[in-house]
Design goal:
Largest sheet: 3 strands, antiparallel
Order of helices and strands: HHEEHEHHEE
Strand order of the largest sheet: 3-4-5
Radius of gyration: 15 Å
Low-confidence stretches: none
Helix content: 25-40%
Mean pLDDT: 94
Amino acid sequence: MVDAQIDERQRKQFGITIDTLDVKRDEFVIAGDGWRRTRSGELDARNFGVLNMWGAWFIASNVIRDVAALNNREMLPWDVWGGMTQDKDKLDTAFLDRLAALTHDPDRHFDALREVYLDPRIAVPRTVFNAVHNRPEAA
C-alpha cells in the first residue's frame, strides 16, 4: 500500500514515521477493517480521523470512499455525497457492515463491489459537497 499524499510537512505535523511508499498491512487500518473493529468494540472510533474529522461517521464515510475508489473514483476526504452523514444515528450500519466485508478482500469480491457501486449511496454523482469550502463542486 502507498500513501502518496503525505509530504514532509504532514510527516512532522502528525508524527508519521512509517515508509509511506511501502506501507505494511499492519501499519494502516483500512476503513472497512476500522469499521468492523470499532463495531465489535475492539477499537475506539474516536481514534480514527484527522484534524477535526473523527469518529464513526468519519470511518463510515471512508468505507463509502473506499468502495468508490475500488471502482476507479478516487475522491478527497472532504468530498461528501450519497450515504455519508456526520450524524452517527443516521448511519446505515447494516449497509456499512456489508461494504466493510466486501472491502476487506476486494479481489475476492470484485463483482459484488462493481454491483454495489450502482447504489446511489455510493456512486459518485456529478456534483459532491466540499465540506472544507462548504459548497457543492463538480466531482
